[in-house]
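Complex 222.
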Amino acid sequence: MKLLLAEDDAMLADALTTQLGGAGFEVEHAPNGAVADYLLSKQSFDIAVLDIGLPMMDGLSVLKHVRQTQPALPVLLLSARDALDDRVAGLQAGADDYVTKPFDFPELVARLQALLRRSQPANSSALLGRLSLDPTSRRALVAGEPLELSGREWTLLELLVNQRDKVVTKEQITQTWSAEGGETGGGNSIEVYIHRLRRKLEDAGLVIRTVRGLGYLMETEA
Ligand code: CA
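Predicted structure with calcium ion bound:
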């Protein structure tokens, strides 16, 4: 599991690199936000730990930037301050979890492992019916043929696949889209995208069911 650690406190970064290494993570350390941003754009990571207070570019800005291209990357924020504002801003910026310093190391590892478990389908190639998804390149194939998908269609498809056999609510769809940036359409626009995906998935052996009043559910064709 490859982990990006963005932390400017050298002693803490050293200790964390050693301990996370011992816990099975391959750690890449960034001493400031600019390096973190660069590494995230150049390398592929399974998870990222970002300190909020970083020189050059703060952790929230790094997070917002990476969310534009990697909506599914699990990100845990570290903050020195136990400030509610930070926590709210962090979650709004798309953080998956948040830990306040000082923290217990075993707790940090447990939270990272929980994030990885949740994101597992997003980080490995998922196969459903005749559809396979490659989250790294954001490509979908039906029986080996690439599907032409807009960014928003891809996000919607990934959400439905990752939560297959569970209802995906319109709120979840709107939130996921807004975490990716760009304007968020209302309920009608969700229906338009669902309609387009259904057409594109006709040969995939998959159906997107409408669950009235709740949302949508992806199932393999009976
Ligand atoms: Ca700091």
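The longest strand covers residues 206-211.
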